[in-house]
Write a structure and sequence with these properties.
The complex is a heterodimer of chains A (304) and B (156). With 304 residues, chain A is mostly helical. Chain A is 71% helix and 3% strand. Chain A is globular. Chain B is mainly α. The N and C termini of chain B lie far apart (174 Å). The chains are: A mainly alpha (304), B mainly alpha (156).
Chain lengths: 304, 156
């Protein structure tokens, strides 16, 4: 690590910034090398200027890889699932699925075949993505730097690589917006467009006479709309914030490694302690995200 | 930290995973769990039924044993009765037979006695006649006094 930093002549803030920059693929903006052609951004500034039409390759890669890992093992267990005595993998998968099924039954009372599988996918996928936080912060970026420079001929300095997809707001917002769309869809489907709109405009302030009702519509709408919009935002920001902060602390601890032997040993102990504590956060955040998603789906199915 | 196409990519990825999970993971596992739950419930019910049946069978067996014991007692009683009957019968038969034999023997003895008496009488007559003849050798005509002598013989 120390050599890594010395080689690239990075300052502490440069090291941190490098760690917090996604590997961004997009159209290289004006004022940079190869402007106009498609490629990886060489700096945070360049990535920012690419705007919306760019993609975080590292986030997509890790999230899809981990998702496929989840799908692969669970599908393997599901294919060979029998009512007889379950084997090791089947036992584990059944245990997880029963746990999810129990907690979904606890907070979701309507009938919808999508909710329980959605909860399972959310929980396992987010858990796996969060667990990437426990891999020491420099390992995978270093590997990526070597691969980038030797295979793709990139300057290793410019190979940005973030391995925890949930520290990328794109990933957390991607999930929460998908859930938001589902809640809107089922809310309108079950309550009807009228019922849905009534829920947005006729409460929390209710009135008997029509003029007062009409007068209260904007007030109610403002309150309810903020409530509606805050759901996906709080859902995704909670997960993002927790994991981002966790990753940041790992990066700060990693900085200590370059400050001499005694501080390095201290940093090792700190990193271990924070990793142990972080296991709790990782599981808790995955569970909270799943449970809140189920609760939002429940609210979409019932008028309150 | 920029918001870009990744957002949409992640949404699509998420939707695909959920769809796959809903189609190919959740139903088979839940099906297997349900089937196992049913199997266990069936097994428990069968066990209970078996236990109940066993209790019934035990009760039935006890009844059978009781009945058999009663029958055995009856049979023994009857057999004892029959045995004493047979003994009594045999005793009776023996007594009758003995009586018959005794009666036969008595009759025979009487017959023998009579015959002996008859014979004795004849001999006495003959002796008497012989004596009389000797006494009355010449005076008595044997043929003329035969009827008188015979009368005498019968009176002896």
């Amino acid at each position: 690590m120390a050599e890594h930093m010395a080689e690239q002549a990075l300052t502490a803030s440069g090291y941190i910034k490098h760690h917090l920059q996604n590997l961004t693929y997009g159209k290289i903006p004006e004022g940079h090398e190869h402007a106009g052609s498609w490629g990886f951004a060489h700096s945070a500034q360049e990535a920012k200027e690419m705007g919306f039409m760019a993609i975080h390759v590292d986030t997509m890669f890790w999230s899809i890889l981990l998702g496929v890992l989840f799908i692969f093992f669970f599908r393997k267990a599901a294919k060979s699932a029998t009512e007889g005595v379950p084997g090791g993998l089947q036992n584990f998968v059944e245990w997880v699925i029963e746990f999810i099924d129990d907690s979904v039954r606890g907070s979701f009372t309507a009938k919808n075949p999508i909710v329980a599988p959605m909860a399972l996918t959310l929980f396992i996928w987010i858990l796996l993505m969060n667990l990437m936080d426990l891999v020491p912060v420099d390992w995978l970026p270093q590997v990526a730097g070597v691969v980038g420079s030797s295979v793709f001929g990139m300057d290793p300095h410019h190979v940005f690589f973030r391995v925890v997809p949930t520290t990328d707001p794109n990933a957390t917002f991607g999930m929460s917006l998908a859930i938001f769309a589902l809640t809107l869809f089922y809310g309108i489907k079950i309550k009807g467009i009228g019922g849905f709109m009534a829920e947005l405009t006729m409460q929390p302030f209710e009135a008997k006479s029509l003029p007062v009702k009409i007068f209260l519509i904007p007030v109610n709408f403002f309150l309810e709309f903020v409530g509606l919009i805050s759901k996906p935002i709080s859902l995704s920001l909670r997960l993002f914030g927790n994991l981002y902060a966790g990753e940041m602390i790992f990066i700060l601890i990693a900085l200590l490694f370059s400050s001499g032997i005694s501080l390095g040993i201290f940093a090792g102990a700190l990193q271990w302690a924070w990793a142990v504590f972080h296991i709790l956060i990782v599981m808790l955040q995955a569970f909270i995200f799943m449970t809140l998603s189920v609760v939002y789906m429940e609210m979409a199915h019932h008028s309150h | 930290m920029n918001i870009n196409l990744t957002l949409i990519g992640q949404s699509i990825t998420f939707a695909l995973f959920v769809w796959f999970c809903m189609k190919f993971i959740w139903p088979p596992v839940m099906g297997a769990l349900e089937a196992r739950r049913k199997e266990i419930a069936d097994g428990l019910a069968a066990a209970e039924r078996g236990q109940h049946e066993q209790e019934l069978a035990e009760k039935r067996a006890a009844e059978h044993i009781k009945e058999a014991k009663g029958q055995a007692t009856d049979i023994i009683t009857q057999a004892q009765k029959r045995a004493s009957e047979i003994v009594e019968e045999a005793k009776g038969d023996a007594r009758t037979e003995a009586d018959r034999i005794v009666t036969g023997a008595n009759a025979e003895i009487e017959q023998e006695t009579n015959r002996a008496r008859e014979q004795l009488r004849q001999e006495v007559v003959t002796l008497a006649i012989a004596g009389a003849e000797k006494v009355l050798k010449r005076e008595v005509d044997k043929d003329a006094h035969a009827s008188t002598l015979n009368d005498l013989a019968t009176q002896l």
